[in-house]
Amino acid sequence: MLVEVHATNINPVDSVVRMGYLAKMVPFAFPATLGTDLAGVVIEVGAGMTGLTKRDKVSGTASPLAGASGAFAQYAATPAATIARIRFSYELP
What CATH number should be reported for the domain holding residue 43? Predict the structure, then answer.
């Protein structure tokens, strides 16, 4: 699934990866997009995906450690299993 990223954060794993402490365990081919956690809006869903649709507000991960594209970008490609719909009792402006 493709998510337009509206927010992300830097968690401890992101810091450790960025500092190179996991280089032997998780080799990256650079340039690489890092980042794990994200919140945003679904832009595209893959064939056969159920439960999420375009324009759903979501939160989850796009960890490059798990084969996703990385969250520190405008758009992130990630498996649907790592994403959950955000439900609000009101709409944000």
Answer: 3.90.180.10
The full length of the chain comes to 93
Q: Helical H runs in the chain?
A: 12-18
Residue 75 near residue 47, CB atoms below 8 Å: no
Q: Indicate whether 13 pLDDT > 70.
A: yes
Q: Match 């794993």 to its residue by tokens.
A: 13
More confident residue, 52 or 91: 52
Q: Kindly state whether residue 57 falls inside one of the protein's structural domains.
A: yes
Q: Tokens in use for 24?
A: 């032997």
Q: 64: domain range?
A: 2-85
Rounded Cα distance between 53 and 2, Å, is 11
Give the Å distances, CA to CA, from 37 to 2, 5, 24, 89, 93: 14, 10, 23, 23, 23
